[in-house]
Amino acid sequence: MPTINITGKPNVGEENSVRVKIEEPVKIKIQDHDRQIFEFKLNMRRAMNGDYMIFDHADIDIIVQPKQSKVVAFAKDNTSDVVYGAENRLFEHLRRKGIIQYDSIQGGNVYGSLEGTVLKIVEGEKLDTLDYLLFEVSRWMDTERPYFESVKAHDEMMDDALLDPEDKYSTELGEVPHEEEKGSIRQHGLFAPYMYGRYIY
CA nearest 110: which of 44, 61, 52? Predict the structure, then answer.
């Protein structure tokens, strides 16, 4: 640590003289209190052409195209009303945040996709478009995550109910005695279509 020596020599009738001697340089770190740091996580991959592919959502995949200034959402598996609803909520969120141009939201060239044009940053504004866009996508994903996590939990619960049911909802092999006939389909006395009106017994 640097050593700081301060010596004061007050003299009567003279101004006080204070000497400051710093033997080693002092490093001062100034933090900008006006700047906030935001941290977020996305399941994201970068394509060979520089596009960013986001796979967090259960129903749609989001592609950010910085070169074309576009955001495109594709159906993950099958196109349905659920997929369109998720795409619509995404672009509505980005539109309200001032990221997507309002009149640019339209269907893409791939069936079931939706796309929009990213607005340009005003000159002199200290804001990175890509960082702000990804941050808002992550915030929207946080609002969607409880929905598809609950759907996943429900599917797992149904699988457990079928594969490993409780004792009161299941029977062991041989616990129910075998009967000669079961079900509603009769095995005898039916009309035989190939016998032309004859019955079999």
Answer: 61
